[in-house]
Amino acid sequence: MNNVGDFIQWLFFSGGNRDLSGFVSGLVEYPLFGLYFILAAAVSVLLAWGTLRVAFPRGSLLRPPQWNMWFGLLMLILAALLQFVVAWVAAAIMGRNLMEIVKGPLVISLSVIIPAPVICIVAYRLLDAVSRGRAIDIGISRHGALRNFGRGLLFIIMLYPLLSVVSGLNNAVLNTIHADTSEQSLVGMYRSATNVERALMFLMAVVATPVWEEFIFRGAIFNGMRRSVGRDEAILLSAVFFAALHGNLAAMAPIVFLGIFLAYAYERTGSLWTPIGMHALSNAMNLVPIMFGA
After folding, report:
1. Angle CA(254)–CA(219)–CA(249) in degrees, nearest 5?
2. pLDDT single digits (tens) 87-144
3. Please, are residues 121 and 213 in contact by the beta-carbon 8 Å criterion?
4. Which of the listed residues 50, 89, 131, 294 has the most CB atoms within 10 Å of its CB?
């Protein structure tokens, strides 16, 4: 690192393309790096804390759940099966091998976009039956939906610098131990996709995925974990589980970090629209730079 510009590039854009030894030597050779890093982390924490204080209610607005974590995991299994069926039907229509075309952007996008509303409806009906008509308590009421969605957008914007710091340090650690730091396969697929395929993948990532994943991971699984293991443990466990199912080592720590705030924001507002807004904008911020050649 030769100047502050290189450090900023490393910290926020290149994803930590140097290992910890390079990072430490940079801090030693250029103390301004250390000062900038400390200030960036401090400002990021203050932004996140200030947003919670100003824009979010104090205390939990979620009702006690009527199901446990195992029922929430059952919802996830059903969702995965439905997506597999859609992909299998698409493969049959195209007359090709499922494992061959499931790696293509078109089938992957459709296997998420098409079943997403079905997943939410089926999960809601099942949760409604278990909770004796109280599934609405997971926070999908239209009352205050726009306000809570806006809170989610604001919060993820305030969290972005902190997520960038975590991502950079995470990749520096992985580079130090020579672990794989390649980008997620879907991101690579998005880079090489056609314009139509990119449009479908963007719709999948920014609309369909945030809705069904938040419905299942926060609405069903996190709520069930709150009953099974307690609130704080549920926030951490649901975040780890959420990150593990993404199957990308390089993104594990940032996704865990994001998952913690998704659950916490949901718990504070009592509205599923808040983490949906956070999730949607987070995915969009990852894809938009690629759209413009970054």
Report:
1. 25
2. 888 777 776 666 666 667 888 888 899 999 999 999 999 999 998 888 888 999 888 8
3. no
4. 131
